[in-house]
Amino acid sequence: MKTIMNFIKSRIRFDRNELSGAFGDIGTDLPLILGMIACSGINGAGVFVVFGLMQVATALIYGIPMPVQPLKAVALIVITQKIGGEVLYGGGLAIGLVMFFLAVSGVIDRLGKIIPLAVVRGIQMGLGLQLSMLALKDYIPSDSTPGFLLAGTAFIITLLLIGNRRFPPALPVIILGAVYGFVFKYDPSLFSGAPNLFFHGLHLPSSDSLLTGFLVLALPQIPLSLGNSVYASSRIINDYFPEKPVSVRKIGFTYSLMNLVAPFLGGLPVCHGSGGLAGHYAFGARTGGSIVIYGALFVLLGLFSAGNVTAAAAVFPKPVLGVILLFEGISLLNLMRDMAPVKNNFVITVLVALAAVCLPYGYLIGMAAGTALYYLADKRIIGIADPVQVGR
């Protein structure tokens, strides 16, 4: 028992900075989760509980603010094409199986040694641009004039306190949003009734849903997952926690295992993500404690919202979520500064980012084209040649 407690203490800390950092990724996660629940018709309380429990498990495994996130490409397809729950579960299982094969076979390691740092930075830059644009175009303007005033106040607070270990910024920003939501949007009926027991027995995805989910959801998602969830996450861990390096294979294993379990319990397909890690870190998190706090909030909301989890979560104002999302995007954009001194690095990073943002299957195209461009330039076949170092 003492050994177990020492193990936990070495990975988990609870203080004001961990509490602040716990909210560093909520601007990305909450709207995507709510959108998928609404469009697929799956049980919202179960989704929240499973999502929260996976956060806690990941915190214990890694001991750093390594988040669990909904899959972004999957979320976009489910929300825009109104994909049903059966296909969503099948797609999650298919994604888990593919990633498990890549991790077990070692393919994920071999690809990691080939893909250069400039390409990884381009993937991070592309995601940073997408998150920032989403915040500025959709979230911050969502409540009209009051929303702009609320977002402006939250932005100033964050700007003044970002990086402050004594007064971390997310706490006053979350309190501001909670007060606004309580005054203008709160409905007591959302939290009335007994705890909502989400578990309704194991769910077994059918072979048809597995095949359809693979074609519709897994194929668009896997390239983004390799670039952002695996390689970019490994890179950002090395940036922020050089004393705690994490292999791409380990990330691939935990990614795959989450998706091999979640569909059977009624959970959404999930991943790790460099953007979420950057967000938690930017708002003060340094251990897995922030992720435990974050996961516990989802579990409690799922259990005590009396089945109205979507409406209950929507009480929190989107303009405040937008400010948090904006700073998460800025944190990712800031990572590409080490590419600026070398022409080759900078050009490839920008091109990969533009492909990710502007093209269908942009992360796949950007990763493949950027890697090819890197090696062509290194061999002086094209004219942006400068010797550069491979990312791993």
Task: Give a written overview of the molecule.
The chain is mainly α and 392 residues long. The chain has one domain. It is built from 18 helices and 2 strands. It has a two-stranded antiparallel ribbon with strand order 1-2. Helix 3 packs across helix 16 and helix 9 crosses helix 16.
Keywords:
392 residues; mainly alpha; two-stranded antiparallel sheet; 71% helix
Strand order of the largest sheet: 1-2
N→C terminal distance: 38 Å
Overall pLDDT confidence: 84
State which percent range the strand residues make up. Answer: under 5%
- Tell me the number of strands: 2
Number of helices: 18
Topology overview:
Elements: H1 2-11, H2 16-21, H3 26-40, H4 44-62, E1 69-70, H5 72-81, H6 85-105, H7 107-114, H8 117-139, H9 144-161, H10 170-184, H11 207-240, H12 248-265, E2 270-271, H13 274-282, H14 289-304, H15 309-313, H16 318-334, H17 343-358, H18 362-378
Antiparallel strand pairs: 1-2
Helix pairs in contact: 3-5, 3-16, 4-12, 4-14, 5-11, 6-11, 6-12, 8-11, 8-16, 8-17, 8-18, 9-10, 9-16, 11-12, 11-13, 13-16, 17-18
